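Hi everyone, sorry if this is the wrong subforum. Our group has a chain we'd like a structural model of before ordering constructs, and none of us has done structure prediction before. Sequence below.
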Amino acid sequence: MQYRTMRACQVCGKPFHGGFDCHYCPECAKAKKSDTVVKVRMCQDCNTEFFGGPRARRCPDCAYKAQLETNRRHRQTGTQRPLGSIDKCIICGQEYTVTSGRQKYCSETCQRKGVLAWQKEHKKGYAKQSGQDIKKMERRKHAEKVCVYCLRTFSSTTATNLCSDYCRTEHRKMLLAIADANRGGNRNLKKYEEQREKYREKCKND
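Answer:
Right subforum, don't worry. Here is the predicted structure as tokens:
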């Protein structure tokens, strides 16, 4: 059974009970799931804005021109990797049989790793180029959060749900104790919970 504790939503800052992998309150989680992935993006060739999905790199006009150029090169050079030939996976290096001209991976596991790595780098470059990282920092600066340990409200320019070094240290001790208990260790979790409740009461009265 997964241990549930008080957490602060990374979107609205509202406290809620959730597991270690929960970052949003139920309302914000539902809203994020309903968000469309089609957003305004910037063409890597002409720098114009267009609506596209997470992997869209070019506007429709530039994408059409790029496809024409790809077709032209293919007619000149022919097939570089014939179907049925052997190639190596760009993630793990294992050999696989080519079943598609655009195949890069030996399995769905390696494909997922490759796609996630590409998305991470793409989002990082897009955020820097479009100024989204600066906008995010400004939103964080003015957003009010709730510390998951002491329940005090605070603001921060970084992605954190703990307001101080003390809360960060004590919260980490609790998480380590919970992890040890989940592995079968004999840890007194109630002691950490009582210590947290006392500190919350102290903060409330200050």
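For your construct planning: The chain has a mean pLDDT of 83. Residues 108-130 form the longest helix (23 residues).
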